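User: Batch of two.

Assistant: Item 1 of 2:
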Amino acid sequence: MIATLSGKVLIKGTDRVVVDVGGVGYEVFLSSDGISRLPDKNEDAFLHIHTYVREDAFLLYGFLEEEEKEMFLILKTVSGIGPKLALAILSGIRVGELGTAIVTQDVKRLMGLPGVGKRTAERLCVELKEKVGHLGTGEDKGVRPAMGVNAAAGSIVSDVLSVLTNLGYPDPLARQALTAVKRRIGDERFAELTLEEMIKEGLRALA
């Protein structure tokens, strides 16, 4: 099974991308959010991959962060939610917010997502409440902050991402490096890092 892909963006569509890996083009389906955050054509990209195999198809679904892939796989465990609907759901909401909505049983918010009616929203809350708490962003009801790194999380993170990309590292790889640092040292310690310390830790993760 293909777990990750690293190569150049060859074609960028509305719901899929073709990544050139050593002269072989891999078609990968992504959420609209993932597409919007992909590097431009001919730039390097790194994707976490879920390989979906059935009798008449061999499909690849791609994610910029491990957390998005994990949420995708969790969504697929719910009856009636296949890969296409799981990806559509992720196109309408970020992973952390989705985790929070499920844990807090915000049925109304879930019903606003593509392809999700009242019954599916209720099923998500009942079946996944105990499975997605670690992917939520809220502080209430025991939901831990998401481990993913987003430039909006703070000016230092944004500055570090800028430094790393200026050094030649693709934005997705830079984000993955900072996510790995955050996971390794914990949220509290990560938030206390100075600009210089975060750059050093990021470069060490990229080495």
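Item 2 of 2:
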Amino acid sequence: MGIIERFIEHPELGKKEYAELLQASESSEGRERLKKEALRLRRLYYGDTVYVRGLIEFTNYCKNDCFYCGIRHGNREAERYRLTKEEILSCCEAGYGLGFRTFVLQGGEDPWFTDGRMEEAVRSIKERYPDCAVTLSIGERSFESYRRLREAGADRYLLRHETASEEHYRKLHPAEMSLSHRKQCLYSLKELGYQVGAGIMVGSPGQTYEELAEDLIFLRELQPQMAGIGPFVPHHSTPFKDEPAGSVDLTLRLLSIIRILLPKVLLPATTALGTMDPLGREKGFAAGANVVMPNLSPAENRKQYELYDNKLCTGAEAAESLADLKKRVEAAGWKLSMERGDAAEEPLQEN
């Protein structure tokens, strides 16, 4: 039995075997076999549904200096902005009117947004829209901070670990940042009852199959409800400006592998995938993804939240273009759902 069939039968492999699996997935036969199994599991737990989340990028200030990120603290060219609580609520109001039932508040690690300010924003959204889920994506905070935000009503938390390899982490981050702390944050979030999202930046500078194998082991151990898998895309104002972008093909193969590894996971077809390939979103769905996050941020701020060059924020990436998104999703054979769409716990009954 080849490594791909072994993985499909028993997804719990060792580091060396996961690296071998990634090597084997380079062949068209291997890729198609993984995709077929990923689609089978996606349909088993979610049918043909693609869930929509409304993304609100509410601050592009960040205290960190990650080498890959366009809103890093050291980028003096970035046009900084912060949305007020009223502006955040206005985005939610527009989104609710369009049918959104999950709001994702994403921002840099901005110290201005203290626990008190974030609590107030989350509580206001939940009071106004009690039938909606609130997802936060605001980086590393203390256990107490996460506890307060959970008690204020936050349902989910996205914190991509980017790489689970200590050696690779050091190539991507300044010395004051710590992989062990990032991992601890993810376990704290789980302990507090959040639906948790981790994730990988595919093809970041220096990444090897062995390091991606460590990511797969970490995801298997963490058992997140969400996983964000997107290609690295360089930004012109970072130390990695001249590095090659990550591979769309490898990203798609990893989407299939993670769907098999974590069958119940919510798996976005990311904006980075759509930025790298005009059909990236559709290819992501065909590889096992089942979430899409159009942008609800004020139009004048979308370009300013530039994590990487040429980031899509118009067309089907914009919340106002839901009809276009619906058409594209349905043309690819899927069904768009505006429900809050929590992670599956059991297979669908009809299966």
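The chain has a mean pLDDT of 93.
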